[in-house]
Specification:
- Four copies of one chain form a homotetramer.
- The first copy, chain A, is of the alpha+beta class.
- The first copy, chain A, has a single domain, classed as Chorismate synthase AroC (Chorismate synthase, AroC fold, 4-Layer Sandwich), CATH 3.60.150.
- Helices cover 26% and strands 22% of the residues of chain A.
- Chain A is built from seven helices and 18 strands.
- Chains in contact: A-B, A-C, A-D, B-C, B-D, C-D.
- At the B-D interface, strand 2, strand 3 and strand 7 of B face strand 2, strand 3, strand 4 and strand 7 of D.
- Chains A, B, C, D: It catalyses: 5-O-(1-carboxyvinyl)-3-phosphoshikimate = chorismate + phosphate.
- Chains A, B, C, D: Pathway: Metabolic intermediate biosynthesis; chorismate biosynthesis; chorismate from D-erythrose 4-phosphate and phosphoenolpyruvate: step 7/7.
- Chains A, B, C, D: InterPro entries: Chorismate_synth (IPR000453), Chorismate_synth_AroC_sf (IPR035904), Chorismate_synthase_CS (IPR020541).
């Protein structure tokens, strides 16, 4: 399988460069006879799009989905579904000043070393824009999971030093997608300050899944947490992932960390809903660490193609904090992984 | 590919249950003509084995490798290498008291729900003993990487509240494999205390890789950190993983987190040696969160097959802290992943 | 990997339905820095297109390639290449009379049984038109193989009772792509007669590959002939495949069939250039049996959705003999397979 | 996936060299809770073993299966099943005379070219003995298919010029496994004559599958005939495969070759039970061309490692006609493929 594909029973293949003619995704293995909610798909696309969130970039892009195959009269046919996002803006001129220099924190240099070619169009394949194709696939996966009673909810739970204490998910329709309304406003204020300072800031995204039956996940290397980690860690900005008590487990005793249970159910969920790589029927809880956006309009030291030290100010309008938009990408990768494992464990019906 | 296999160009397939007749691994894709250092293999096996570390279980097991194929007169032939660990102790009697009850924090219940069968022999396939087969494959991978100038060093850097401050890797040959000699002794003392209290404790393992050339890792879903996360998170006790600054990135500004560079090299390594999913040539640094051992000799609430609440004391001699032995498993999975990606990017020569 | 994908190191994923908005292919794993000969690609597309051959259908379709990704300023970048063929004719009206009836020899019924849905648009995914996406990928593979000195030549060597005796490949630029000019003319005459009789006819395609170095193919299940068979047998009209002496081997003695050799080289090529699943350096020779086109304008018995017997005359202009166009598809699948194995054995440089 | 593995939902990985310590197979993806008929497994092993058939080699080997994992108290557990065949005869001395010379028709030379190493132990990995591991996996697959009402029957239908006319499968328990008792005796006589002449002879194996429901097979590249071809063509001695009318289709008109049908069913089966890559519910019929055994005790020209022409007489007792034993291998590969596709299409229950 190529490295631009993910999943076995529900296989997603993405292609396309930022500022190329189009991005797209081929989705193979979808059950037949499912009526796609096209408005729902587009709504999820809009949650991720640039300009769709006041904390993000001011660039305004429309991610309009075109479906080229696999759907007949609104229903899936069982054949591969191709979804395309044509670019409305292919101007590479904006990037001309980056032609010979490598942006700090970006993939410019490693791609150049690996491929011996420099595609300067907005980061090419390593751009965050690539994730729009994943969101298209993830949105479909979420609909197919919803049919099975499985729901996925992501949100920002930390930005810099601001940490959400509450988990009121019905409050999470704020611009931060944060389940703590008070923290959300503090995050927004901090991000605005960071923007003014021409800087960026990191955060943590939490994702919760409800309705997963016991039995998802395939030992040994197909463990649920292993595949979810593969999926979420394939998002460029993610630098860490944890399940349940995660890194806090390092401080714990077994007598505290073990989830005891009675005939009425589990008494805690330190495991994050997974035991031995298989879903236990509890809520699945994971967190992803998001690094600060690499593109900042501050002078930074870097090198050019001749390995000469130089100073770079990255121009353009970038998200000071990627979290609110990355929430949608995390949800998408979680959805893709869960549907893949659901099909594997329980078939397509 | 089956879910008991990992890797594409260097493919590892494990089999076997704890207390079954044998565990083993099939390694496919190895270059031909490589002289295996059999003593080196066995030495790495010994680092993981029960009874090999004073902080661990007092059970004393020998993991002696038998090679059944793929090697001729000491050299690899290019055909699959089968390595087997025959069990010297298959007594299932010790586990008879667990027949109808599900141990907290274990995979007993999820395996039972998924497969409808209860293999009580020491946890069967979900036992930590399964990882011995991975260590065999990992030990070979480490030799093949060493030939290419790549070295992997893991160690315990946290146990409960004891956190290693130093990174003196030449001190790491202590029982904790901790790069901070003072912290190591504190860890040992704490673990002994935890053992006396019939409890267990978690920790953090760090793994560093030196000598990786720029260019390893395949965007988009084959990103180096994504595959390493898949690999390391497939170890049962691992609840989280992070690269470079990891979760600390959430607190950072871009101006701090971006790794600037001059013609003399990078000025920092917050990225942990990976940019855009591709190795940058810097040291690769990752950490894995290890939960406290689930098996403790304390009364815990759980249920039996009839969903009746019951109280269980898990008998037997278990590791109060799995970190020193898990270090070897983390190293192994890192080695397997890196060699797979090395073969993919640069071929077998 | 999804079932609409083929290949490991050079991975081809196709999508699209006949008479849907578009067909396409995503090609993953291509080396970077290769200058694509776009005219050459289009020329190969034209060899397969309907209306491009006097023996075929009179329908005239243009298969114009659009490249959406993976190419920058004419050179491959190492990222996935998406090639799209937009449909100029999406009229489904022509197929309205087939809505409730299953065409003999077609996949109508099995797709309906499998997917519970009937996409009547020209056979949907099972149409021969699906192969146009493979030809696009195959044309690129042929260019990448040519760079390595490997050339692929296919031709029609049998149509009904007319069997080519000669192998003058420099004569094969006739409409049958037949390496025997005399037989070619007889084939054309026979096909015209078949067309007048509203019937169709089968044939045999031969494909030869020169310049393959010894060493291609991966035992055991990745044997060169196994993967080539997988590839070629995935073409809908192919009912059999053989290598070298193939089915004639059944009549042979070992003393005749073994290819003896001297220091000057092999004395024969009954093996068809493959020994033990690995290329020997000799010419690779394979043949594929092509069934007569299923769509014929003659009354045939079949059933409808209510399992009632009915009589059907398939309308429209179909190829009485698919061989000349299928030659291009066979070449394409051979090229895709060889490049995949070449990358696997020798890397991308 | 490594090239020594086959199948996606039911994955078979083989290892081991002829005259190495053991051969074996890891079977991943088997449903849990299935009671294995161990005597049935061994019986199928015995059908393939050397010395088990009077037309074959006089070498007498026992292929006794050891199961190392995946089975608990006689039932499958859902974890990988490891089956091992330990060698009782590892004498490499017999092969000493072959050390520097390449046997005609064998993989000696291509393995040497590919791997740069010469494992002279009975052909190593390319020996027919490798197929014993496949037969073990195939025997299990046949039991799992039988539970679902699917039966597989292979037989020899041609040896040299002797062609079976009848298809009386209840007569097929003769030494040739030939469904024509009269032809079977002629085949036996011919093989004895060939043996006396120190030669070998080819043949054709037919395999029929009954009870397959409509719906098996996954378009486009996962077509039933494509995967069956991959599987069967991975057997070293097979030089061709055809389905239904196969190569005879080349002579046919569409009006003859199309399988018409009425409400009472199909009127013919030229397609061999597959339409558009999906099983139609008809009997699946395929034939495999078997080349004459390469090892013959006649002087043949070949080269040695110094590329000097030399003459070789292969010593030892080899099968003059491999067909009766290869029947079992073909059945096995067909069974493995069908179960893989069955699990994919219909799940494990």
């Amino acid at each position: 399988m190529g490295h631009n594909s993910f999943g076995n029973a529900f296989t997603v293949t993405t292609f396309g460069e930022s500022h190329g003619p189009a991005l797209g995704v081929i989705i193979d293995g979808v059950e037949s006879g499912f009526k796609i909610d096209m408005e729902g798909l587009q709504a999820q696309m809009n949650r991720r799009r640039p300009g769709g969130n006041p904390t993000g970039t001011k660039r305004n892009e429309i991610d309009e989905l075109s479906i080229l195959s696999g759907v007949y009269e609104g229903y899936t046919t069982g054949t591969p579904i191709a979804m395309i996002l044509y670019s409305t803006n292919q101007k590479s001129a904006d990037y001309e000043h980056l032609k010979d220099v490598f942006r700090p924190g970006h993939a410019d240099w490693t791609f150049y070393k690996k491929y011996g070619i420099r595609d300067i169009r907005g980061g090419g394949r390593s751009s965050g824009r690539e994730t729009s194709a994943r969101v298209a696939a993830g949105a479909l996966a979420m609909q197919l999971l919803a049919k099975r009673g499985i729901s996925i909810q992501g949100g920002t739970v930390q930005v810099g030093p601001i940490i959400a204490r509450a988990r009121n998910w019905d409050e999470a329709d704020n611009v931060m997608r944060c389940p703590d309304r008070v923290a959300a406003q503090q995050m927004v204020d901090l991000i605005e300050q960071v923007r003014v300072e021409n800087d960026s800031i990191g955060g943590i995204i939490e994702c919760r899944v409800n309705g997963v039956p016991a039995g998802l996940g395939e030992p040994v290397f197909g463990k649920l947490q292993a595949l979810l980690s593969h999926a979420v860690m394939s998002i460029g900005a993610v630098k860490g992932i944890q399940f349940g008590s995660g890194f806090a487990s390092a401080f714990m005793r077994g007598s505290e960390c073990n989830d005891q249970r009675t005939s009425n159910g589990f008494l805690s969920n330190h495991a994050g809903g997974i035991l031995g790589g298989i879903s236990s029927g509890q809520e699945i809880v994971l967190q992803a660490a998001i690094k600060p956006t690499s593109s900042i309009s501050r002078a930074q030291q870097t090198i050019n193609k001749n390995n000469e030290t130089t100073t770079l100010v990255v121009e353009g309008r970038h998200d000071p904090c990627i979290c609110p938009r990355a929430v949608v990408v995390v949800e998408s990768m979680v959805a893709i992984t869960l549907l893949d494992l659901y099909y594997t464990a329980f078939g397509r019906t």
